């Protein structure tokens, strides 16, 4: 399997194996094992938290649901859990805009430019089936290169109380 196969499948389905927006965190860790804990995303609370499985980064809400998903592709090599990437764990990166568009078109995944994240030295396109965003860096005088691919959050407004605060 190639990295573009993984990314186009995510763009079409909105998921990578057990990982999707709104997935139960216990189900994800049962399938993929324990991730690297990167940091809290709030200064005042222990949750939400940012976790990583190589270059697959997941934001997990205090209700223990996956709220944001992205694959960092700006490195020379992209690392993903083998169980969700067809048995391969590392892929060459530095994917061009033309390669991504071609892969989406070949996979029958419609897309459109995404103006809100297109400015300065970056451009973004959105895959219509899932709303996935492909954001490209545009180096001076060079072809755009994929920086990150992300699946949108589920938009829930979490009212869950942090553990230990049941009253």
Secondary-structure topology with pairs:
Elements: H1 3-13, E1 15-16, E2 19-20, H2 25-32, E3 36-40, E4 49-53, E5 56-60, E6 66-72, E7 77-79, E8 90-92, H3 97-106, E9 111-113, E10 122-127, E11 133-137, E12 145-151
Antiparallel strand pairs: 1-2, 3-4, 4-5, 5-6, 6-12, 7-8, 9-10, 10-11, 11-12
Task: Note down, in words, how this protein is organized.
The strands form 3 sheets. The chain has an 8-stranded antiparallel sheet with strand order 3-4-5-6-12-11-10-9. The protein has a two-stranded antiparallel ribbon with strand order 1-2. It is α+β, with helices and mostly antiparallel strands and 167 residues long. Helix 1 (3-13) crosses helix 3 (97-106). The radius of gyration is 16 Å and the shape is globular. 17% of the residues lie in helices and 32% in strands. The chain has one domain (3-151).
The termini sit apart by 49 Å
What's the gyration radius in Å? 16 Å
Q: Can you list the strand order of the major beta sheet?
A: 3-4-5-6-12-11-10-9
* Secondary-structure class: alpha+beta
Number of helices: 3
Mean pLDDT metric: 87
Number of strands: 12
Summary keywords:
alpha+beta, 8-stranded antiparallel sheet, globular
Short description:
The protein has 167 residues and is an alpha+beta fold. It contains 3 helices and 12 strands. The protein has helices at 3-13, 25-32, 97-106, and strands at 15-16, 19-20, 36-40, 49-53, 56-60, 66-72, 77-79, 90-92, 111-113, 122-127, 133-137, 145-151.
């Amino acid at each position: 399997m190639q990295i573009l196969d993984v990314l186009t499948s995510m763009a079409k389905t909105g998921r990578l194996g057990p990982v999707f927006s709104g997935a139960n965190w216990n189900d994800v860790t049962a399938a993929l094992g324990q991730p690297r804990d990167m940091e809290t995303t709030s200064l005042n609370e222990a949750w939400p938290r940012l976790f990583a499985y190589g270059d697959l980064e997941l934001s997990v809400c205090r209700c223990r649901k996956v709220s944001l998903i992205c694959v960092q592709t700006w490195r020379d090599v992209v690392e993903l859990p083998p169980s969700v990437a067809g048995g391969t764990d590392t892929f060459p990166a530095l994917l061009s805009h033309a390669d991504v568009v071609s892969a989406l078109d070949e996979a029958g995944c419609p897309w459109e430019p995404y103006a809100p994240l297109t400015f300065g030295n970056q451009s973004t396109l959105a895959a219509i089936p899932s709303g996935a965003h492909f954001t490209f860096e545009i180096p001076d005088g060079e072809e755009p290169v994929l920086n990150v691919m992300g699946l949108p959050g589920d938009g829930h407004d979490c009212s869950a109380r942090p553990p230990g605060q049941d009253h």
